[in-house]
Amino acid sequence: MKIPVDKTGLTFMVMAEPRAKLDFESKQPVIKEGEQVHTVTVAVMNGAEVVQIRLSVPGAPGIGQAQWVDPVGLAFNLTDRPGQGGGGPMFWWTVDRLDALGGPSAPSGASAPASGRKGAA
User: Fold this and answer.
1) pLDDT digit string, tens, across residues 87-111
2) What's 59's domain CATH number?
3) I need a surface site. Which of 22, 40, 68, 74 has the fewest CB within 10 A?
4) How many distinct structural domains can be found in the chain?
5) pLDDT tens digit string along 7-61?
6) Are 64 and 104 in contact (CB under 8 A)?
7) 71 in a domain, yes or no?
8) SS3 of 101, please?
9) Is the CA virtual torsion 47, 53, 54, 56 positive or negative?
């Protein structure tokens, strides 16, 4: 199940350089629709609290550490873990793309988004 996330009141900053996502079992790169999937750790802030989450991003995100970003198409994904007895719930975060908003000194949302990856508007 893919649950869209309302980002109202939230800001996002990249905490670490993007990494190629590897399949948990095979340790091979994850490819979706012909593009390498990357994992990006971001800080999610609401003005009072900060949490870190890992996002799965299709293609080369084109962003770096300490950049403010807009996670376009942010969604929380939830499913039952395969295996005997169901194995319990499994969840992950995905985005369609990450649009860069500026460097470390830029206030979140203050500048127009730049292209987050090839083909992004």
Assistant:
1) 678 899 999 999 999 665 554 444 4
2) 2.40.50
3) 22
4) 1
5) 999 999 999 999 999 888 899 988 888 899 999 999 999 999 999 999 999 998 9
6) no
7) yes
8) strand
9) negative
39 CB contacts (<8 Å, ≥6 apart)?
Answer: 18, 19, 20, 21, 54, 55, 56, 57
Does 92 map to a domain? yes
Q: Look at residue 58 and tell me if it is in a domain.
A: yes
The answer to whether the pTM exceeds 0.85 is no
Contact call for residues 108 and 101 (beta carbons, < 8 A)? yes
Nearest to 14 by CA among 55, 74, 72: 55
Task: Please report, as a single letter, which amino acid is at residue 119.
Answer: G
Q: Which of 60, 58, 53 is nearest to 16 (CA)?
A: 53
Which domain does 68 fall in, by range? 2-102
Q: Would you say residue 120 lies in a domain?
A: no
Give the residue from 67, 55, 66 showing the smallest Cα distance to 97: 55
